[in-house]
Amino acid sequence: METNKTVLIVDDDVMVLESIDLHLSAVDGFQTIRAQGSAGVTSHMQNAQNIDVIVADVVLAGSMTGIDLCQKAIEQYPRIAVVVITADPEVHCAEIPERGVFLRKPFGGERLLEAISEALWKAAG
Questions:
Q1: What is the CATH number of the domain that holds 53?
Q2: Least crowded by CB within 10 Å, which of 35, 37, 49, 62?
């Protein structure tokens, strides 16, 4: 996987944010930005051209879902990669953006890296 990627992690659960952040920070070449809920992501989306990958939970406090967030990011920044995560058994991969990658919680670090790699490949076209 190509290194020097910035990953925006969006989730309401601080433990999930920390877990993903710790795992990606331990991998050479990843820089991470954390945002708690959809309200926490607003300022980061204004500078999303510096973000390579968004890892977002489907269910977020605030006015946007993770799916909405990822779709908006793809529309504004066509080369951005997205990974949509959820523990909600009612959410299915057909609901995420077409080129997004779906990942059901709980997942391990290796599976997360595989999903990010797949999302980057899809975003590259």
A1: 3.40.50.2300
A2: 49
